[in-house]
Amino acid sequence: QLQLEESGPGLVRPSETLSLTCTVSGGSISNNNYYWAWIRQPPGKGLEWIGSVYSISGSTSHHPSLKSRVTISVDTSKNQFSLKLHSLTAADTAIYYCARPVLEWLGGAFDIWGLGTMVTVSS
Amino acid sequence: EIVLTQSPGTLSLSPGEGATLSCRASESVPGSYLAWFQQKLGQAPRLLIYAASNRATGVPDRFSGSGSGAVFTLTISRVEPEDFAVFYCQQYGRSPYTFGQGTKLEI
Predict the structure, then answer these.
(1) What percent of chain B has pLDDT over 70?
(2) Which pLDDT belongs to residue A32?
(3) Chain A, chain B: beta-carbon pairs less than 8 Å apart
(4) Rounded CA gap, A78 and A28, in Å?
């Protein structure tokens, strides 16, 4: 059974870079060309898609509201994909989830989620 | 980007009643690539419906999705006590893939 687990710091200072990793277990990240995703949820608010990466091609896309602050990559040798979010502000405080869509090539309809990791941006 | 508006914001029902949740898009969703999620407090979202009307694995058949174009509906035929949660729609027909603001289903 495929499982995802986010890891990274729980507290980051403003203007710094957040680095999160999603480790995939119970299967290979490169078996199929899924569009692995990062989604976040500020406390008490709704869900926001951050961006996604294809596991085989490595091509990515991200929400334009985040402009050039986002870097998403995949490391098939470690069965992981990662998120870097630069120039943090308090508005980036959220639960960060990694997820996989129900079908290959799709950008949404995520049927497998990590438990989420809370990230607080504060000095 | 495609903006999704969910209504009502809060739906108050008793177990056994039927529920109808709406998701309206600011423009037609390509391919009717519209999903519904259920999120309980402190948990990750759970996929219920994808491609507007396809139930995800393990989802009870009291949940059904319908719609096309820019208007979509999630129906719960008879609400069970474990169904009370927040429900989100998401379009994944065009990037950026956007979510609605959520409908809270409360007792």
Answers:
(1) 100
(2) 84
(3) 67
(4) 10
